[in-house]
């Protein structure tokens, strides 16, 4: 098992300094080692278009601002910190689940888009994906809060990667439920908090609603909804759903993360397990156990 954190700093610096006409080719060369993260997409994937859709740094504007932000990531030792965090997290996970098969993992770290209002605003300058076995995608704008959480963010995504790797939980886009993603976000945050504490381990977007009973009740009402096209509002909130053409359901940004943490914390407290020990727990066990002990005041 090898975790390879691609050293994308020099490549991004070259891209941002190059003539605009040359940037797409340079970008494709940079991300090619991680192109397998799109293996479930139909047909040939336009890597530049996917980068733009994912709020990655622009190839046609904001060069000076991006170069300054890129330097901030470099000076924060982002790539080495992410590498060490993932290596340490694998050690902690294997101590809890010795027989776990861990795939080789390639990690792509990119700078975000300062002109993307949704990314810089509601998403707080961070997006990531660890759901495709063998690949982790990390996208940061170097807000101080994000720089402080580089390691915790990386191990959050590692938790997803290991949960959905071969031999783990099966993610079938046709049958997967909102409840599975809610639980997975709670487990990933719990793992990050196990390693880095509550101050750094929570995904920032979920923190404002951790104790919101109305949000909890609303999200719990949708846990059995299926179809990934319906998930954005329930997990990320209405603003994200609207951005990607989904239907708002009356939830704030990060609602699913807040509720996932609450469900998982109740489960871990009831069972005495650690987040690492619960990596592959069935979402139904988490939900059923948690709902027996969580008391929501009735208005």
From TrEMBL:
Q: Enumerate the InterPro entries for this protein.
A: DUF2268
Task: Spell out the Pfam families in the cross-references.
Answer: DUF2268
Superkingdom of origin: Bacteria
Q: Which residues form the DUF2268 domain?
A: 103-287
Q: What's the protein here called?
A: DUF2268 domain-containing protein
């Amino acid at each position: 098992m090898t975790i390879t954190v691609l050293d994308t700093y020099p490549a991004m610096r070259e891209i941002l300094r190059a003539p605009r006409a040359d940037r797409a080719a340079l970008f494709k060369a940079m991300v090619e080692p991680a192109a397998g993260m799109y293996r479930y997409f139909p047909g040939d994937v336009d890597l530049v278009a996917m980068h733009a859709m994912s709020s990655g740094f622009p190839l046609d504007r904001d060069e000076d601002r991006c170069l300054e932000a890129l330097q901030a990531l470099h000076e924060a030792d982002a790539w080495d910190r992410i590498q060490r965090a993932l290596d340490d997290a694998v050690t902690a996970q294997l101590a809890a689940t010795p027989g776990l098969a861990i795939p080789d993992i390639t990690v792509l770290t990119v700078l975000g888009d300062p002109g993307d209002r949704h990314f810089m605003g509601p998403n707080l300058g961070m997006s990531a994906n660890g759901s495709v076995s063998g690949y982790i995608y990390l996208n940061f704008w170097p807000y101080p809060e994000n720089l402080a959480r580089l390691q915790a963010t990386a191990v959050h995504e590692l938790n997803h990667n290991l949960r959905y790797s071969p031999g783990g939980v099966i993610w079938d886009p046709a049958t997967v439920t909102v409840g599975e993603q809610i639980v997975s976000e709670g487990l990933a945050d719990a793992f990050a908090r196990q390693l880095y504490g509550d101050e750094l381990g929570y995904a920032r977007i979920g923190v404002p609603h951790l104790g919101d009973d109305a949000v909890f009740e609303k999200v719990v009402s949708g846990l059995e909804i299926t179809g990934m096209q319906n998930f954005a509002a329930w997990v990320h909130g209405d603003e994200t759903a609207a951005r990607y053409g989904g239907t708002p359901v009356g939830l704030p940004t990060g609602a699913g993360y807040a509720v996932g943490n609450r469900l998982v914390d109740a489960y871990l407290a009831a069972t005495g397990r650690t987040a690492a020990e619960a990596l592959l727990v069935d979402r139904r066990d988490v939900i059923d156990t948690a709902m027996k002990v969580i008391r929501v005041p009735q208005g």
